């Protein structure tokens, strides 16, 4: 198997070329054991029906020596517990908000109906309130995530810490000869970055950037300068770019090769070997790292660009000669496009406050497009950015997975051959994807640079179930949403500050 040494994306458009780029700096603090989020425990299990309570809460977390940092999390003070769902289960959620402001619980990567179960901006849970939702898991094994999505406050809430893993498992993946022991040889890693101000606190407004907030300090699973004790020859790392804006260009010391086995929403058809890999906002990549050439006492370092992110401390391990199967999954779903659905064009344009989709900013109660359920259509996503190299926009769709067909007419990258829900588009590039939904409702599609989506680089589609063509959905409007935030903060509307509002105002638009 050949080894890819390439990051694939356009080097001229990397975030390091942004005017506002904040370089990572390795923090000068002692190494700390990697936090591995605890597994979320159900309140009750009744056959295939599983019941959970998830509370969005404020807290304090020891991130740096000295003062604790004020943070938000799901059932924990920062980030959240890992939800592990099994295909075929019916999940019953009691969602509770103990934050001082409205939030939503968005299941990024789950194929569940919108807009309520999906948890986008139309499914608010108000402070001291709750919401109950039920959905069925009907998809391939994958690493997904839960994050807040209350427009235009998504970016700030995720920055405060509202992000957690949500796995889907199935029998096929469980039977593969790959690591499966949570926290031992199968580890989630959410990559984020933060700027610590006085007293170790975060200040979203002070650091706000309409092209995406960044901080100089890498944070992995809410750990600064982490190490992990390696006790098995092979380690499966489930990487998630949970940063608001930062891209991660990952590689290990000694250019240690690794094998990617899964992307956002499924296993890859075949494993792909790398020694460098790039992750853009919201993407997931599962890789298997083989430490067979190392011995107890050795260390291996993970870098992004040239900055060390974390250390793997090698301990004694048993030899592991299991071979990663050449065929990881029998077939990736790949329906034929419906002949009556012409190619749907989507244009992502602008930078800073000018970001738009199809020449428009997001309007919460406008449906931009309708498509029928269970029919496949080709979407053609263009990134028109061409000034100063432009920037890479990660295009995300709620409620489904898609198959990447081509980039500017060429083959997709070799690690894009599974199902995805987020695909990054280079400046001047158009990416074609096959889109189909097996659930109905209203769903958002947007750039996953969080300040871009809050700033209006987002649109909304309605997926129509032919058995229920007249289904009506209650869509909240921006005015109501703004009044909610103003009331919660006890400020008049003209003094309300939410990052995304700035982008509308600067473009002379009302939110
Ligand atoms: Cu963007």
Automatic annotation (TrEMBL):
InterPro entries: Cu-oxidase-like_N, Cu-oxidase_C, Cu-oxidase_fam, Cu_oxidase_CS, Cu_oxidase_Cu_BS, Cupredoxin
Keyword Oxidoreductase: yes
Source superkingdom: Bacteria
PROSITE patterns the UniProt entry points to: MULTICOPPER_OXIDASE1, MULTICOPPER_OXIDASE2
Record keywords: Metal-binding, Oxidoreductase
Entry keyword Metal-binding: yes
PANTHER family: BILIRUBIN OXIDASE, CUPREDOXIN SUPERFAMILY PROTEIN
Family of the protein in this entry: Belongs to the multicopper oxidase family.
Protein name listed in UniProt: Multicopper oxidase family protein
Source organism of the structure: Lapidilactobacillus gannanensis
Upper taxonomic lineage: Bacteria, Bacillati, Bacillota, Bacilli, Lactobacillales
């Amino acid at each position: 198997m050949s080894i890819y040494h390439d990051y694939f994306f356009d080097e001229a458009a990397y975030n390091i070329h942004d005017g506002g780029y904040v370089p990572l700096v390795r923090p000068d603090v002692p190494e700390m054991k990697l936090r591995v989020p605890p597994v979320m425990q159900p309140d009750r299990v009744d056959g295939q029906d599983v019941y959970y309570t998830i509370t969005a809460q404020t807290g304090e977390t020891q991130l740096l020596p000295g003062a604790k940092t004020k943070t938000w999390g799901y059932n924990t003070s920062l980030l959240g517990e890992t939800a592990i769902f099994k295909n075929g289960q019916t999940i019953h959620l009691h969602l509770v908000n103990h934050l001082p402001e409205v939030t939503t619980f968005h299941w990024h990567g789950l194929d569940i109906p919108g807009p309520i179960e999906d948890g986008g901006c139309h499914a608010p849970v108000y402070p001291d309130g709750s919401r109950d939702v039920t959905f069925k898991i009907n998809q391939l094994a994958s690493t997904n995530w839960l994050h807040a999505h209350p427009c235009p406050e998504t970016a700030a809430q995720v920055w405060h810490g509202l992000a957690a893993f949500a796995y889907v498992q199935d029998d096929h993946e469980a039977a593969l000869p790959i690591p499966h022991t949570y926290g031992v040889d199968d580890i989630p890693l959410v990559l984020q970055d933060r700027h610590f101000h006085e007293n170790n606190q975060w200040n979203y407004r002070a650091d706000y950037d309409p092209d995406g907030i960044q901080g100089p300090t890498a944070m992995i699973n809410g750990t600064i300068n982490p190490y992990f004790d390696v006790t098995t020859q092979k380690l499966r790392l489930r990487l998630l770019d949970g940063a608001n804006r930062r891209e991660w260009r990952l590689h290990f010391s000694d250019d240690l090769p690794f094998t990617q086995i899964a992307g956002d929403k499924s296993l890859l058809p075949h494993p792909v070997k790398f020694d460098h890999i790039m992750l853009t906002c919201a993407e997931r990549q599962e890789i298997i790292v083989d430490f067979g050439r190392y011995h107890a006492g050795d260390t291996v370092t993970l870098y992004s660009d040239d900055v060390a992110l974390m250390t793997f401390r090698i301990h004694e391990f048993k030899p592991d000669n299991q071979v990663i199967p050449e065929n990881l999954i029998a077939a990736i779903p790949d329906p034929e496009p419906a002949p009556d659905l012409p190619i749907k064009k989507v244009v992502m344009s602008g930078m800073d406050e000018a970001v738009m989709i199809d020449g428009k900013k997001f309007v919460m109660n406008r449906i931009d497009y309708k498509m029928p359920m269970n029919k496949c259509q080709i979407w053609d996503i263009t990134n028109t950015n061409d000034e100063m190299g432009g920037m890479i926009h990660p295009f995300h769709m709620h409620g489904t997975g898609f198959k990447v067909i081509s980039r500017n007419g060429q083959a997709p990258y070799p690690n894009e051959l599974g199902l995805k829900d987020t695909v990054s588009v280079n400046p001047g590039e158009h990416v074609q994807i096959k889109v189909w939904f097996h659930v109905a409702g209203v769903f958002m599609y947007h750039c996953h640079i969080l300040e871009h989506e809050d700033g209006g680089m987002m649109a909304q589609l309605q997926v129509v179930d032919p058995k229920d063509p007249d289904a009506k959905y209650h869509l909240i409007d921006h005015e109501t949403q703004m009044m909610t935030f103003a009331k919660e903060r006890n400020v008049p509307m003209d003094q309300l500050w939410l990052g995304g509002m700035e982008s509308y105002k600067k473009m002379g638009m009302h939110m």
